[in-house]
TrEMBL record:
Protein name: NtaA/DmoA family FMN-dependent monooxygenase
Enzyme Commission designation: 1.14.-.-
Record keywords, A-Z: Flavoprotein, FMN, Monooxygenase, Oxidoreductase
Gene3D superfamilies linked: Luciferase-like domain
CDD domains from the UniProt entry: Nitrilotriacetate_monoxgenase (cd01095)
Pfam families: Bac_luciferase (PF00296)
SUPFAM superfamilies: Bacterial luciferase-like (SSF51679)
Superkingdom field: Bacteria
Top enzyme category: oxidoreductase
UniProt family annotation: Belongs to the NtaA/SnaA/DszA monooxygenase family.
Segments forming domain Luciferase-like: 33-389
GO function terms (MF aspect): monooxygenase activity
Amino acid sequence: MAGKAFHLGWFLQGSSVQAWGEPWTGNIGTEWMVPDFFIEMTRNLERACFDYVLLEDSSYIGESYGGSREIYLHHGLSVPRQDPSVVAALLAQATKHIGIVATFGTFAYPPYLLARLVATLDQVSSGRIGWNAVTGSSDYAARNFGLDGMPPHDTRYDIADEYMEVVRKLWGSWEPGAIVADRERGILVDHTKVHAIDHHGTHFKVRGPLNSGPCVQGQPVIAQAGGSPRGRQFAATHADTIVAMVKGTAGMKAYRDDVRARMAAQGRDPDRCMVLFLVSPVLGDTDEEARAKHRRKLATTEDQIAKRLAHLSKITNLDFGALPLDKPLGSLTTNGHQQSLDEFLKKAGNKTLREAAEIYSDAGSIPLIGTPAQVAEQMGAAMEEIGGDGFLLSTNDTSRRVIAEICDGLVPELQRRGLARRAYSHAMFRDNLLDF
Ligand SMILES: Cc1cc2nc3c(=O)[nH]c(=O)nc-3n(C[C@H](O)[C@H](O)[C@H](O)COP(=O)(O)O)c2cc1C
């Protein structure tokens, strides 16, 4: 099968103890503090010509499940987790082509600080930085930043809209060509091309200009993951790439069609934003080996059910530990990740919480199980049905071995079918992202 090439991203679940307790993770429990694993991994992803690696983040320790930090700390669920800006800088230093997307919450960083931080990363990476713009969703996180709790879900996006306006103005506060570096006339910067922004809005008051100088890309790449209608509207307004977790090819197609229609309605060209769907391939030397691996992943011990529900609790702020496991769920609402809860409830139907947890997994938008050749075919067929634009790969058992399976097994099979790039065409991140 030959088809149209699509884009590939890697979703790194924070700079943290990746895959604690999983096989083939070496001495990760003690070696996670040094960046060797992340660096080797990103170099491998670059060798496989991935568009980007996205560093997930949230700046708090989970506490929603059972009203305690115990399960999160005991199993290393998103903790310990390092500051993504430091790791992004190290990854940029160790690579030359791949895009690096760091997550920063709009509730946590004053816009000036964020604009300067991202501009600096864009400069030191020679134009390869993206920002995953998240609004945050947890009251525990809010309390680390002087707030009593998170504003209501849709209000967070309203605030973030103004936030985006401010940071974009700051990134634009240096006109192209402002740095003249003219030795003969002794002029470094043409002061007439650097402007204050004097923003006085509903939520922010910022003078500018940015003291760090301009981004290499002009504006850095913006990534977003809004799943609710308000979130999709925000993503359609601002994002160069949208990352999404939607179950099934029909739902994925509908999601992509929806954000593209929202872009067009605002006068944006829908082809200027790449929608990447989260998937978690399970690869084996034979089909049977891959299926056995998949069965092991789905095993539902009490511990695993609790871990899955703890993850869901963390992103929805709901205490699933307090609900009876053997009763149907009923209706639930959240001020956290609305779309994730909706997807969970949709799949649960009339099932008990235990049964729902048994089928709930982070395995991604569609199952991809088989040999590298089989999975490459599955990805190609799904993409053809959805219409584009690519996949965001992630696994719960990320190890050097898993990365080798992807980069040396799966990606060459995609390349052979014309479904993945064989070389980067451009120096900068956005140019590669929008190349096809
Ligand atoms: C692939 C993917 C990655 C995400 N990464 C982060 C992240 O790093 N930090 C974060 O706070 N939220 C993250 N989110 C959550 C989104 O920002 C958003 O809150 C969520 O998708 C629910 O959408 P909604 O808020 O519009 O309901 C991610 C979501 C998805 C699907």
